[in-house]
Design brief:
Its main location: membrane. GO terms for molecular function: zinc ion binding. One of its GO terms (cellular component) is membrane. Keywords: Membrane, Repeat, Transmembrane, Transmembrane helix. InterPro entries: 6-blade_b-propeller_TolB-like, GPCR_Rhodpsn_7TM, NHL_repeat, TRIM-NHL_E3_ligases. By secondary structure, this protein is of the alpha+beta class. It has five domains: 281 residues, TolB, C-terminal domain (Neuraminidase), CATH 2.120.10.30; 283 residues, 6 Propeller (Neuraminidase), CATH 2.120.10.30; 122 residues, Jelly Rolls (Sandwich); 48 residues, no CATH class; 305 residues, Rhopdopsin 7-helix transmembrane proteins (Up-down Bundle), CATH 1.20.1070.10. The protein contains 20 helices and 68 strands. The strands form 19 sheets. Strands 54, 55, 57, 58, 60 and 62 form a six-stranded antiparallel β-sheet that branches. A four-stranded antiparallel β-sheet has the order 2-25-24-23. It has a four-stranded antiparallel β-sheet with strand order 3-4-5-6, with no helix packed on it. A hairpin with a 4-residue loop joins strand 4 and strand 5. Helix 9 packs antiparallel against helix 10, helix 10 runs parallel beside helix 12 and helix 11 packs parallel to helix 15. The longest helix is centred in the C-terminal third of the chain and has 40 residues.
């Protein structure tokens, strides 16, 4: 019960027995501790320690079951108190010197439960985040055993109590019966004793003012382990402040809970599930508040002490991994402060007490870290405060101190230029023995650290007090970034060695440098760097590196060799594209400011991600532009100073405070609900598992930035959509999604929302079918109207069946033969959203069709499919040509079968086919007759020896034969395709033979005809080029060889088709379950000639087809151009009385018979070439004549040899007449 006001005021002034120092905002303790007591004094595994206000130290020796007391400065204990307790875990000392001590373990396996062996702890410590759950599970199991056995195996009369040693009478009395060990003890200002019972998962209390020891009251926890706000999981250390608020180290929930006085629900103030991101804890064991109510936590299984402050949490001591060195801890358990703020820690597994001296009650940063609002803006037009005459060429390094003094390194003159922000001219110029410095850093006392690694291999410090330079670090390359952290550790970024190194400036001797980041090998792995430039070290000693060569910013947390990509390439969450970042600064709220060098701009992170601040108008020298900026710094007012090295100047961009709205007060509201088994289900991210979800409609009444954070006992997963959420397509309208950015297992969504727009927040879980309660905390400029859209599942209808050998079969996806199936008719009474899912012992596929399902065409009427993968199953696709089972996807691969397949009706005579089929049949016959006439006339012409005096005649004679073969195979192909589809009784052997052979043979003759025509064009161009020097005999010899070799070359490019072309044949088993269908409906043979290539063969086939199509086309084009323009140029050089244009016209008149043939062939090739080059996939049934027309046109050249070669030539026409005369003479009258 909360005390009344008067009583509270009286007791709030009560003298505290322990120290609560008031520290500065950033206190520092010496990282190297002093061991004030080892195992010989404090025994094995010490846990409990208490330092009172007169600096007397109390420690419980668990090995000897004694209390040790000594003064802080003494070496040996001044008093040793033995008692009837066993391995006590905690103690507390009041102002009058009375000692309250835990009686020890009443639970049989208390020690073994909570303390893993050394090996297991080492393993878990190495990967605390990933193993914490499994560790806690094992711990809980053993605890459960101890609970059940506690009465039989333990002596609760001796151990299950809290004893008080009365200083006045030097005697022990029992003050609380706990039936459990108290892992934490505390006496508040009202003399109420608190006991933290780890195995009972509770904190209990009783008033010491009550004369009788009545039953204890519950202060926190339900007694059942759990992670809900009113539950605890192995609580340990406790602390009660003057407001009677209780803080609990909830160890295996990896968090610190605050239970306000009188409240049963706790608030997570640190660790897993905290409302605001704080720090990751691993089994915290104790907590203390200082005078300003900042938290100090023993992060036990992370082997460190952490503390909160204005800038959040940071590591204080034990920050160098687990170990036994003076700067390391090994499973620390508790801590206490003396009056001076020195820290005393029980280092349990090192069996010692460590004292960490308070080094500085404050460290003053030498640089400015302003706190900006979320809408902060800078004037886009910079002011040049220093040009080349002051800072030299290509200035790199700049630093602004907290008193707004500006320091710039002049690389050209090897000087340090110093001036006040308001002054025009430098107030000081420091010359030194350094060369081309690329970086500098100034500490609070005015000392300047400057790079001198280019030629001298060192870092120098200019001492402000002595006005001299000294070497403080030896390096063998330039330091492109310098930084001195709060512990006086100097960092150097070695761009050319791909490392960041460091050394402590407190070390008297300059020992070898330690590696802070990078392996020394250039690379893009998380532990590697590529040309690191600017660096920044925060108060937590976390290192940020501008990894220029990898286009990213890396964060190396203290003690970690693997970095975390915070921005740029391969960042965990999409951030911003960077190109060679060279500088980085964190503001007061840890938002990143980055110099994006090759993008010539400065960018910043914020609630809504990254955005450009200055230099957002491209590279240039205008006031709004930058050229390869290298570094920057802030003054105390938030103004930005940038080294614009490509423009040889320093630019100042003024901070515009007027753009900051009042962001200090945010509207907060909470939405609470739960996911249950009657919530709707969907497939999140096309996962195979089902997820319960709730959709919440959101409307904002004011445009602005909003934050949505979840909490509860489920591992929540949140997504925000615009307009609507479609559970059938979770990626549609998705704006943002998150799993656990807020804290462990909870989501946090920061997003900009506009008024008058509808948004939908979908809350689900990370694991499938998880249920539980959740709350959403909404922070923003104004209220957000939230309305649940989800409706409960009112009915579930199970359906059971099985597939047997008697079930009908079909070709699923035209790929898997003989798949058994069952069809179900679905009748819907009420329109709405329905979900169907299967639970079975087979690998089931599901498909939903509208109206009807046709097993011969599984893509017809298909609405939705799911086979356990995202977007799987047979979907109607424009990439399918001819039928579902054909895998050509480009126009260049079209065959006549592909084009006409969907148009042909099976079991239908030609007269009843579509107009397109009948017209195509007539056109094919006409083309055959025309081609036959053309070939006969051409053969008669070119068989004359007068026409074979040069290679052209031989090419054309052969072409007249191949054209006849081509047009014959064309009509054969057409009628084979038509008859095989309209007559399903055609012999399968005939169909297989035709499928495998007709198309390759047709292509052979077609390609051969095209290349022969190209050879004619080439020879005619050579004839024009050589003129009288043209060798006719050599021309004939070459022609005979080409005609002999060319067919074999073409066959070589087509031979693969014989292996990949096959007949797809399918005759479904009758569907006896559907009595409405007759045998005529259900028994049909389905055949299709298909070509199935692997991706590699498909690429090869496409290249071959393109070569045979574009090759002759290109040759005809360039030959025609050369015949006209090449000949005209030759003549214009010899006959200068006419200009070039007149020669071209004359050339055309003289040789039009030579030009007509390549031009006509060129024109006829264009339609099919255009179709071949169409991007993406095609669907022939949508535009039949778009594809059928060019296909027919591609055969016209085989019909026109006579017209384009013989008719325009007087020589060939004369030869034709003579041939007819000879034929008439031979023919008897």
């Amino acid at each position: 019960m909360r005390p009344d006001k008067a009583h509270y005021l009286t007791d709030s002034n009560k003298t505290l027995s322990f120290n609560q120092p008031k520290f500065s905002t950033t206190p520092i303790w010496n990282s190297n501790a002093i061991t004030i007591a080892n195992q010989s004094i404090v025994g094995e595994d010490p846990r409990a320690i208490f330092v009172n206000t007169n600096n007397t130290i109390y420690i419980a020796n668990r090995e000897n079951n004694t209390i040790l007391i000594w003064e802080e400065e003494s070496v040996n204990p001044i008093k040793i108190i033995p008692g009837k307790f066993t391995k006590p875990n905690s103690l507390f000392v009041t102002s009058n010197g009375d000692i309250y001590i835990d009686g020890g373990d009443c639970d049989c396996d208390s020690d073994s439960d909570s303390d893993f062996d050394s090996d297991s702890n080492s393993d878990s410590d190495s990967d605390s985040d990933s193993n914490s759950d499994s560790d806690s599970d094992s711990d809980s199991d053993s605890d459960s055993d101890s609970d059940s056995d506690s009465d039989s195996d333990c002596d609760c009369e001796e151990n299950g109590r809290v004893q008080k040693w009365i200083a006045e009478i030097n005697n022990f009395v029992t003050v609380m019966n706990a039936n459990s060990s108290c892992w934490g003890l505390f006496v508040d200002i009202n003399d109420t004793l608190y006991c933290s019972m780890e195995s009972r998962r509770q904190v209990v209390k009783r008033s010491l003012n009550d004369p009788a020891m009545t039953s204890n009251r519950v202060a926190a926890g339900t007694g059942i382990k759990g992670s809900a706000s009113n539950q605890l999981y192995d609580p340990r250390g406790i602390f009660v402040d003057v407001n009677l608020d209780l803080y609990v180290a909830d160890s295996w929930n990896h968090r610190v809970q605050l239970f306000p006085s009188g409240e049963s629900n706790g608030i997570t103030v640190a660790g897993s599930g905290s409302l605001n991101p704080t720090i990751i804890l691993f089994c915290p064991s104790l907590i203390i508040l200082d005078a300003e109510k900042y938290l100090f936590i023993v992060d036990s299984y992370n082997d460190r002490i952490v503390g909160s402050g204005l800038n959040g949490f940071r590591c204080l001591v034990g920050c160098y991994e687990m170990g036994s060195e003076s700067n390391q801890l090994k499973l620390p358990y508790s801590l206490s402060f003396d009056r001076s703020g020195n820290m005393f820690v029980t280092d349990e597994w090192n069996h010692r007490i460590q004292k960490f001296l308070l080094m500085k009650d404050s460290f003053a940063l030498s640089f400015n870290q302003p706190k900006f609002c979320s809408t902060a803006a800078w004037n886009s037009n910079g002011i040049t405060i220093a040009n080349e005459s002051i800072v030299g060429q290509y200035p790199n390094a700049i630093f602004l101190s907290t008193n707004n003094t500006i320091y710039v390194a002049n690389k050209e003159k090897n000087t340090i230029v110093i001036w006040q922000e308001g002054s025009v001219n430098p107030i000081k110029i420091i010359t030194g023995n350094f060369t081309r410095p690329t970086s500098l850093f100034v500490t609070s006392n005015g000392d300047i650290y400057i790079d001198d690694g280019h030629e001298n291999g060192r870092v120098q410090k200019w001492s402000a007090e002595l006005n001299t330079f000294v070497t403080v670090m030896n390096v063998n390359k330039p330091c492109y970034g310098l930084f001195v952290d709060i512990n006086d550790t100097l960092y150097c970024s070695l761009a050319k060695h791909y490392q960041v190194v460091k050394r402590s400036l407190n070390d008297a001797a300059m020992a070898s440098n330690r590696v802070a980041a990078g392996t020394g090998i250039q690379g893009s792995k998380l532990d590697e760097l590529s040309i690191p430039f600017g660096i920044f070290v925060d108060v937590n000693l976390d290192l940020y590196v501008a990894d220029c060569g990898n286009d990213r910013v890396q964060l190396f947390q203290l003690g970690e060799s693997d970095g975390i990509v915070m921005a740029g390439r391969k960042s965990l969450n999409p951030t911003i594209t960077l190109r060679c970042p060279t500088g980085i600064i964190l503001d007061a709220e840890k938002y990143l400011f980055i110099v994006d060098n090759d993008h010539h701009r400065i960018v910043r992170s914020g609630l809504n991600g990254f955005r450009c601040l200055v230099g957002c108008y491209g590279q240039g020298s205008q006031s709004s532009q930058l050229h390869s900026p290298h570094s920057f710094s802030f003054d105390g007012f938030g103004n930005m100073f940038v080294t614009d090295q490509g423009n040889d100047r320093i630019q100042k961009f003024k901070y515009l405070k007027k753009f900051c709205a009042n962001t200090s007060s945010l509207f907060q509201q909470i939405y609470s609900s739960s996911l249950t088994k009657i919530n709707q289900i969907y497939y999140r991210d096309c996962d195979k598992q089902n997820f319960y979800y709730e959709s919440i409609q959101m409307k904002v009444i004011e445009t602005g930035d909003y934050t949505f954070r979840s909490s509860g006992n489920i591992d929540s997963y949140g997504s925000i959509y615009k307009i609507k959420f479609n559970p059938l397509d979770p990626a549609e309208n998705l704006l943002k999604t998150d799993d656990d950015s807020g804290s462990d297992a909870q989501f946090k969504l920061d997003i900009h929302l506009d008024v008058d727009r509808i948004y939908v927040l979908v809350v689900t879980t990370f694991d499938s079918k998880e249920t539980g309660e959740f709350s959403i905390v909404v922070l923003g400029k104004n209220k957000v109207n939230l309305e649940s859209l989800s409706t409960q599942v009112n009915s579930q209808l199970p359906y059971s069946s099985k597939l047997t050998d008697d079930s009908p079969t079909y070709y699923r996806d035209c790929q898997v033969p003989q798949c058994h199936y069952e069809t179900l008719q679905i009748d819907i009474i009420t329109t709405g959203l329905y979900i169907l899912w299967s639970e079975n012992n087979i690998n089931a596929y599901g498909y939903i069709y509208k109206n009807d399902f046709n097993p011969l065409k599984p893509s017809e009427n298909l609405l939705l499919s799911h086979g356990g993968e995202c977007n799987d199953g047979p979907k109607e696709s424009s990439c399918v040509i001819g039928d579902q089972c054909n895998f050509y996807i480009k126009g260049i691969g079209l065959t006549l079968h592909d084009i006409l397949h969907d148009e042909l009706q099976p079991n239908t005579v030609l007269n009843n086919q579509s107009f397109s089929i009948k017209f195509s049949a007539g056109l094919t016959i006409i083309m055959f007759l025309a081609g036959l006439t053309n070939s006969v006339l051409s053969f008669i012409t070119f068989q004359s020896k007068d026409c074979q005096q040069v290679g052209c005649g031989i090419y054309l004679l052969t072409s007249s034969i191949t054209s006849l073969l081509t047009i014959s195979m064309f009509i054969t192909k057409f009628w084979f395709v038509v008859l095989s589809h309209i007559n399903v009784s055609t012999s399968l052997s005939v169909l297989r033979g035709g499928c495998a052979s007709i198309e390759p043979i047709l292509k052979l003759f077609l390609y051969l005809d095209g290349w022969l025509n190209a050879c004619v064009a080439v020879e005619r161009a050579i004839l024009i080029f050589k003129g009288v020097k043209f060798d006719k005999k050599k021309s004939k010899s070459i022609a005979r060889r080409i005609i002999l070799i060319l067919p074999f070359c073409i066959v070589g490019t087509l031979i693969h088709e014989l292996a990949f072309r096959r007949l797809f044949e399918y005759e479904p088993v009758p569907d006896t379950t559907d009595t409405s269908r007759t045998n005529e409906d259900t028994i049909k043979r389905y055949v299709s000639c298909i070509t199935r290539y692997s991706s590699t063969v498909q690429d090869y086939n496409t290249a071959v087809l393109f070569f045979h199509l574009v090759g002759p086309f290109s040759i005809n084009l360039f030959s025609a151009l050369f015949i006209i323009f090449g000949g005209a140029r030759q003549r214009s050089m010899a006959q200068t009385n006419q200009n070039f244009k007149e020669h071209v016209q004359q050339r055309f008149r003289e040789h039009k018979q030579l030009i007509i043939s390549p031009i006509v062939l060129l024109i006829l090739s264009i339609p099919r070439l255009i179709i071949s080059l169409l991007p993406g996939c095609v669907k022939t049934s949508d535009n039949l004549w778009l594809y059928l027309g060019p296909y027919f046109i591609s055969f016209i050249p085989s019909m026109l040899i006579f017209l384009i070669f013989v008719v325009p030539s007087k020589l060939y026409m004369k030869a034709l007449k003579q041939s007819f005369i000879r034929i008439r003479r031979r023919t008897p009258p």
